[in-house]
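Structure representation:
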Amino acid sequence: NGMHIVRDDELGKGPLVYVCRHGNRSISVLDVGSGAMHALVSATEAGNRLNSPNDLVVTPDGKYVIFTDPTYGLINKGGHDVPEVIEKSDYGAAWVFGASLSSPNPKAFALRKGILRPNGIGFTPDGQTLFISSCCQLELSKECKQGEGFWYRHHFEIDPEGRPALNPTGVLHVSFGSDKQGCADGFTIIPNPTKPESRNVIIASCPGGLCLLDAEVEENGRSLLGQLKLSFKVSNVAVGGSYIYLTGETKLWRLKLKEHVKSKDEL
């Protein structure tokens, strides 16, 4: 699922790709040059197997990986019962973890609990704020119904032991109403071209297609700057050069970015 490219690691080897793998329930490393892949993180510090890592980031200092660990990979085909799936989890939940990239045998440690379906994850350009999305699908709970989008904001910190820590600072919540296709899945964050001095824009998959969010506004619905409704589910989003790239079911799509944006309406 989610990936992160490292051009050169601390040993001068590269490029490498850190990969979330549902099937073998691990964070793995792909050596692009040789094509070799091996599991890097597959268990917690308590010895429990991971659920099914979904998306990841590498901390700004390059020392740790932070990843979401929902239960999607544990769901039987056609199934969606949360209590049943949680029972299959070795640690009985779905958390966000961190793990050292310098350890020869890294173990995952919990960084964030309490998000029902942790999914996408991403840093703001300055590396000081981390967002985590919750993918609400089907009628799973009153707090996370399909058609709802949640993006949880955290201040990124370093604890006294030198490990990363996340301090929750708010949540962006948008109700997309009748848009039932897709969820708050992958996203990327860029400076807001209309207010680059203070705000960031989240370009995200959401119910109904692709949406733009003001990363600083929390009031229900007011963070939504715009939505592009599509006929397919959007899963992951990235920006490269002058394009937005997005995965949609069986295809890779791209959208041309405008070179100059003067107002919110032009986004």
